[in-house]
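Model it.
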Amino acid sequence: MNARRLLALGLVIALLVSACGAPAPTSAPPGYNPPPPWSGGQAPAPTSAPQPTAAPFYSEAPSATGESRASSDYLDQGGDIAWPPPPYPTPWPEPPSRDTGVNPFVDTREDHLSTFAMDVDTAAYTQMRDYLNSGSLPPADLVRVEEFINYFNMDYPDPQEGAFSINLEGARSPFGGEGTYLLKVGLQGKHIAGWERKDALLTFVIDVSGSMEEENRIGMVKYGLNRLVDQLGPNDRVAIVAYSDTAWVVLDPTSVENRSRILDAINGLYPMNSTNTEAGLRLGYELAWRNYRDGAINRVILCSDGVANVGNTDPNVLATYAQDYYGRNIFLSTVGVGHGNYNDQLLEQLADKGNGVYAFLDSDAAAERIFSQNLEGTLQTIAKDAKIQVDFNPYAVRGYRLLGYENRAVADYDFRNDTVDAGEVGAGHSVTALYEVQLQPEGSGDVVVVRVRYEDPDTHAVAELNKNFGRTEFQGDFNRAAPRFQLAAAVAQFAEILRYSSWAQGEKMVDVWNLARNAQLQLPFDADVAEFVGLVERAGNLMR
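Modeled.
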């Protein structure tokens, strides 16, 4: 066969192949190269360059902080696709699966989005400390990982603009086996000076039932409220409602210029009879609403051991009060005291629905921290309905697991639904979430995009910002990660062991202690870290 016939035959074969739809070889988009073989077979490259089905969610020009704002055009489309669409490369090793009551590993092929409401509560950590100091382990159902982590200062920088800075860090995990990494997602709310804080109308709703006499519960509440009043300004007002079998007004809204009158009302309270939380909440909200101050902070602060035994005691019914008055711009914070017959679920749910902070008092020092040192954060909200969405690149991540936040989950499709209730964040508060991440062995490019969306409480404008994190930004040696990162890993693992998470089976408290001790050596002036090392040792001894 001569050369001319061979050429003609080749052209015919090429035309036939093209007519059958065989794709021309192409490369994946820059930064999203499919991984090479990882489980005994060659992973085929995508047959055509995958293209996003929606416009990128980020602007091309990031801000000076490295964060970029979502464009209004994209928000109007309602899309959220950051990565090339499937099909993703195969074969694909399945992420580990265990029967567990806590967050499982999620296969990124099935769901690459993790969405949850911000939470700045710390009550679970303080309750744990109270139990350990009393010589017993905390009940597993009181342990919430996110509240343990968020107890600690993470030294995030303040935002250069807007309400939040996004701070991302990753390193190989000291737990979880080969190929497992930790990703820390940290948000820092802007601080405000005391003179910048709005005037406040605070309505204290105080439980004076008989159980408040135990363990000096009423004494800790009085100390905390005394410290709070000491920090208020002359334009702030305080009202007090007490409740036992029924509820009554102890003090109508009174200017802090009459400080002695307010303190006399607080210090004159004493325990008696039963606990009608419903009556106390109802009267407290009615008093706050009648004296509502436009443009000021309007907040109800419930102080109780949560043991409701008179009136309607259903947490869901009581939470409707908080939800209704939040719609009228009256926030609710809850402060718990005591343990044993303490009702953690009630106070957490009330604060959640009332969009405020849930804290716990186990000492005068805890009251000082909540009511004095963190006053601006306790009182003034800088972001309403704040949500976080972490978008994992399936070309770079096989699976992921969020540590904690189980009861703060938000549907992925509701991230940009601004009618959905989410979390509230006070001035200067930080929020930290930790993920276990299983990376593709040789994937490349960006691993995640973290998005934050919130409403300004004053202007009601909705803002969104985001930040990317690349594979090369993971630290391969955990011991070279920043001290605060090592601390977060130790705290999370401590909580996982205390709540008997199946993901912590076989892990030892001594390993947590070693991590905590190493973090303490690098953070020698942080009293909270030093205390944590002692608590880990105490828990380890109790678990023997």
